[in-house]
Each structure stands twice: as C-alpha cells, then as structure tokens.
Amino acid sequence: MITHAVFFRLKNPDSIEDRDTLIAGVRGLAAIETVRSLVVGVPAPTGDREVVDTSYGVSEILTFDSVEDEGIYQVHPLHQKFIAEHEHLWSKVTVYDVTHS
Known about the structure:
The chain is α+β, with helices and mostly antiparallel strands and 101 residues long. It has helices at residues 16-27, 67-75, 77-86; strands at 2-10, 37-41, 58-64, 90-99.
C-alpha cells in the first residue's frame, strides 16, 4: 500500500473562495478507480509548535493498493483535468509518497 500526501500553498492564502474551489476539485479525484481512500483538509489548529508546518492551505491524502495504482492515478485524465483547472490557485505543491511497511 502507498500513501500519497499532497500539500498545496495557495497563491491567495486569504481567499476562502480559492480554498473552497480547490477542496471541491480535490474531492473529485476520489472518482479515479485506483484511489482507495481520499482525505482533504486544511491545517488543524493544534497549537504553535516549531515542528508543525501550517504554511499550506489545502492538503489531500490518498491511499493506493500499490505503486502501480498510484502511477495510473498520476496519468489518469481526471487527475490531469484537475491540474489544468486548478493549478492557477496554488503557488507551490509538496508531495510525500510513503510505502507502508
């Protein structure tokens, strides 16, 4: 199993409309057949600690049964459409791919 964690830094971090538009777009990725689960969210108010990064505006955490399934997701037309329609909303994207042990 693999977890694909993505953190979006918004171009307009104070825009609730931009944040909500991106969240709606991310939710649509659950329709891709290789996505086992999807969680979308925003930074949690867990306190100001040096090790906590709250510089992102929206995150998505997806799981896949295999690296191959994640690869199918990457080139899937719905994923490519999501990028094309929403990339104007973010200034930076950071991805962490984790293999389950």
